[in-house]
Amino acid sequence: MTSAKSALITGVTGQDGAYLAKLLLEKGYAVSGLLARRSTDTLWRLRELGIADDVQLVDGDVADLASLIRAIRHSKADEIYNLAAQSFVGTSWQQPVLTAQVDGVGVINILEAVRLASPESRFYQASTSEMFGLIQAEKQDEKTPFYPRSPYGVAKLMGHWATVNYRESFGMHASSGILFNHESPLRGIEFVTRKVTDGVARIKLGKVKKLALGNIDAKRDWGFAGDYVKAMWLMLQQPEGDDYVIATGVTTTVRDMCELAFGHVGLDYRDHVEVDPRYMRPAEVDVLLGNAAKANNKLGWYPETSLKELISMMVEADLRRVSKE
Ligand code: NAP
Ligand code: F7E
Question: What distances in angstroms separate CA 226 from CA 20, 31, 40, one per listed residue?
Answer without folding.
Answer: 8, 17, 25
